[in-house]
Structure formats: C-alpha cells, structure tokens
Design goal:
The structure is a homodimer of 210-residue chains. Chain A is an alpha+beta fold and 210 residues long. In chain A, 35% of the residues lie in helices and 27% in strands. Chain A has a four-stranded antiparallel sheet. Chain A has a four-stranded antiparallel sheet with strand order 2-7-4-5. The first copy, chain A, has a three-stranded antiparallel sheet with strand order 9-11-10. At the A-B interface, strand 5, helix 2 and helix 3 of A face strand 5, helix 2 and helix 3 of B. Chain A binds a DNA duplex (30 and 30 nucleotides) through helix 5.
DNA sequence: AAAAATCTGTTGCGTATGCAACAAAAATAT
DNA sequence: ATATTTTTGTTGCATACGCAACAGATTTTT
C-alpha cells in the first residue's frame, strides 16, 4: 500500500474526468454537509479538520466523529437516520472532495485507468476508516475513564514508538472522542499524575509505567 | 447494489481460482482466529455467529464486537494491538471464508472477472461494516443507559418499519453491545416499562411513544 | 496591543450505574 | 426426562462520573 502522502497527492490531483467530482473550500464554522437525504454523497477531507456533530431533541450537542486529513465521510456510511440531525462542521478552513457513492461501482464506459485507481484509493481510505472506527470502539467499550485514557495513551505510544506522546487535539475534544465529561476526565488525569502513572506538561504526556 | 442474499450466495459459491481462499467450519466454542500478527488475513462469516472478545490484563472479558451473516473481520481492520489479546470465538457453529487482504489490491495476471467481482463484493461488505460500526458508535456515545436503549430501539424500529420489534440477541449480549452493566440495563428497562415508554414481552418490545 | 473567545483545572454535589449476590425461568445438553 | 448451563429479573451498596460553576491560562480575533 502507498503512503498516506501518496494517497493524499493523488486525491488532490483529481480533476473531473469520466465522472463528476466536486472540490469546494469551506471556512471555519461552515457546514460542510448534513446527513439528511444525501445518501449518495461521499466526502473526503483534503485539508483541514471537521467534526461530525449530533444535536439531539433536547438541543444537546455531541461530537460523534472527528475528521482530518483523508478522512472519508458521508451519509452513505451512516445508518439511515431517525431522530437526531447530524452535521459536518468545519473546525478549521477545509478543502473537501465530493462525489457520488455510485461511482465506486459503476464501471465507466471507457474502462479508464483513472476510474480504476480512484476506486482502489477510495477503498483503501475506507479500510483505514474502519481501523479508526474500531480503535474508537475499543476505547468506548472500556468501562471507566482511567482505562479509556490509558488505552488511548497506549495506542498513541505504540504508534509513535515512544513513551512520550503529544495529544493531537485539545483535551476538550479528547473528552468528546472518549465520550466522557471533560471535567471528570481532567480529574482522572490529575489522579493519574498523583499516583505516578503519567507525567503531563501541556499536551505532552509521558507514560511512567511498564 | 445487490441484496444481502445475492452477496451471500456469491460468497458461498467461491472456489479458489486465481488466488487462494480457504473455507473452514468451526464448532461452537472454537476460536476462529486471534488478532495477533495475522495482519494480512481477512475473514468473512458465511454462516453462524461469532464474538470478538477482549481479555484485558486483569482477565476481564469484554465482547467488543458481534459478527453474523456476511460480517467481515480480521486483524487488518484493527488497530495494531498493544496490550490486550483479541479472539474471535464461534458462538454457534460457523462457516468462515479466509483470504489474504492483499488480494483485494493485487491485480491478477489474467485480469479475470472473478477477481474483479470478488474485490467489489468485499468492498461493499466493508462499507456495510462501516455503517454497522457507525451505528454502534452512535449508541456508545449516548450518555446514559436510557438513551442508549431508546436509540437502539429506534434504529430497529425504523429498520422494520414497526413499533414492535424483536431484539435479535439475548439481553446479556445487548448489554455487551451497548457496553453497560446487564443488571443496570435490566433495571432501566423496568423503569421504561413503569413509566409507560415501552411494553416488553420476552424479546418483543413495543414502543409506546410518538 | 486590547478584547473576545476558548481551553484548562478545580471542587461540591447528587445520582446513575457498576458490582455482587441470589433465585426463578428458560434453554441446552446428556 | 433429567441434569446442567445460561439467561433474566431484582435489590442493596458504594462510587465513579456527569453536571454546574468559576477563575486563571491560553489562543484567536480585531
């Protein structure tokens, strides 16, 4: 498999050929898409960061997904939605590639190599998305905040091959990602420090165990 | 896209051609695979049911995934694992198709139509797996048991287009799926009944609201 | 450089929920 | 048909965690 970067370059170089793709830029704060009756649309985040937000009927806001470089999203990847509304919101300025889900399957008349490669790359992205989702589920199924944090640190640590890691987003967002209350999480972080499990300096965390 | 059934039939009819696939049957209780250094292997459950089980370092067992007809799984779809061991355990007798992840990408010399169709079907399965995973995350990110249950019921209800639904697994398993304590969940179910939100008769639930 | 917005850490309080234990019911195995 | 295992419902207890509120630090905007 190619590197992240190669895939990234391929996606950025795409121009509409045998089927239609659209690129659009969004400013921070704009709504990129809603998950409501666009079942055919797939989106890839080329640059920037975006959140998938749920407002439930009480108006409570939850971040249920966080997207960054090469994240693939869109209603086609979501359960047909019932009660609550889902939005994808640009957290920073973003460039997004849109295309129709069907183009992944429909063979183009010319059987052009571009179309083939495109499908392949998208499928690879989807697979890495599956890994991401499984990672998150792995964390969400831990029964308490401490285990969620430690598992999360472990994952980062084994990715970077280092006991010192840097949290890639704000602690507020981390709490959302782990689906716990922010203040409760901060409390637990303090306990972990007191008990000598970790050291913390801003977003730098050092694991002291093992 | 074809129906579930068509995909199912296609998969069952697979015989090794331009690359190697293996079919094997497992008895209830057998270990189908472990997530440990088989990064290349993908598995599809042709018949039966299986659970993805995590044992953490305390020996605590958690069901972190549940597989049934046409579920696709395998370490390739999982974060490189660090601390705890993952097993896929046959919950009933199972038939499983194994093949190498690489075969999804490598173009076979003959460019045979079988290989093409195979890749396509697998990619569709993976996409439906993404929908499944997103469904679960949607549920896991709800902040309390009541909301988890009601959302779960809603999803089932809108799938079946009926206010009366049938839980497709035991309540013990449902608790695992929602990652809550079983007794706490039963307690919450009782409350929902008392307060007139639902009716319950065994695994049949009727939603009384809206 | 000042003003505004967001992020972070802390704490008190109440409660939702995890845990353990048990008995009855249901399902499965012998 | 009987025995064994699994599932289900219930309840008491303890506590982990969500919530609200606030102040200081940090970042972003103007």
């Amino acid at each position: 498999m190619q590197s992240e970067e190669e895939i990234s370059n391929f996606l950025k170089s795409i121009e509409t050929r045998c089927f239609k793709t659209t690129k659009r830029s969004f400013f921070k704060g704009e709504t990129i898409t809603t998950y409501l009756e666009k079942r055919n649309q797939l989106c890839i985040l080329l640059t920037g960061e975006a959140d998938l937000i749920r407002y439930d009927f009480n108006g409570n806001k939850t971040i249920i997904g966080q997207f960054s470089n090469n994240s693939i999203f869109g209603e086609a990847l979501y359960p047909a939605n019932t009660n609550n509304e889902l939005f994808v919101l640009a957290k920073t300025n973003c460039d997004v590639l849109f295309f129709s889900y069907d183009n992944l399957w429909i063979k183009c008349k010319q059987n052009c190599s571009f179309h083939k490669e495109f499908s392949e790359q998208i499928n690879k992205l989807i697979i890495s998305q599956v890994v991401e989702l499984n990672t998150r589920i792995e964390l969400l199924t831990k029964k308490n905040i401490r285990d969620k944090l430690l598992s999360y640190f472990d994952i980062l640590s084994s990715k970077k091959l280092s006991k010192t890691i840097s949290i890639p987003f704000t602690f507020t967002d981390l709490a959302d990602y782990l689906s716990v209350d922010r203040s409760a999480m901060t409390r637990e972080l303090s306990h972990l420090i007191e008990e000598g499990f970790i050291e913390k300096k801003g977003k730098k965390i050092t694991l002291l165990y093992e």
